[in-house]
Amino acid sequence: MPFDLQPYLSGALVDVRPLREKDFDDLYAVASDPLVWEQHPARDRHRRDEFTRFFHEALASRGALSVIDRKDGRLIGSSRYHGHDPRHDEIEIGWTFLARSHWGGTYNSELKRLMIRHAFRFVGTVVFLVGRDNVRSQRAVERIGGVLSGTRADGSNGESVLYRIESRTSAPS
């Protein structure tokens, strides 16, 4: 069965669905906050031109997802599956950002647990590539069970910190 890169997932706090072109304005409202990108390697992604490029890359990836707050139906962020590698039995989860109103771990943890659980239907390992200076995201990945595994080149020709979660040992509940 091929990996479904754009599933519909649902938890107690969030619904996750494929990113759509019509999500641009609502998602940019979240992304236009410079503090969202403060520790990210692409610190200028809050600018409309930079976000527009990012958004179209996300759509073209065919693995981008919208995150919806179940309480009020608002779009609160996005995440993405990337780089399914059947030979190494792994997929990357990344490009995640949430509105600051939803920071603090609960929403992000549920989002990642939903995505990881879905991924484990297809692969044995989920990887996360996090910018070296993005301590906030590194801690978030560690809180959901990510194990530091060194560094790896990322899609921006940079070096990112590599975390792994193995289905056989750390399946999140």
Mean pLDDT: 92
The CATH topology assignment is Aminopeptidase
DSSP, total strands: 8
Number of helices: 5
How many angstroms separate the termini? 23 Å
User: CATH homologous superfamily - what is it?
Assistant: Gcn5-related N-acetyltransferase (GNAT)
Rg value = 15 Å
Q: Please state the second-level CATH architecture.
A: 3-Layer(aba) Sandwich
Give the class-level CATH name.
Answer: Alpha Beta
What overall geometry do the principal axes of the alpha carbons give? globular
What does this structure look like?
By secondary structure, the protein is α+β, with helices and mostly antiparallel strands. Helices cover 28% and strands 32% of the residues. The protein has an 8-stranded mixed beta sheet, with helices on both faces. Strand 1 and strand 2 form a beta hairpin. The longest helix has 14 residues, at 48-61. The protein is globular and about 40 Å long. The relative contact order is 0.16.
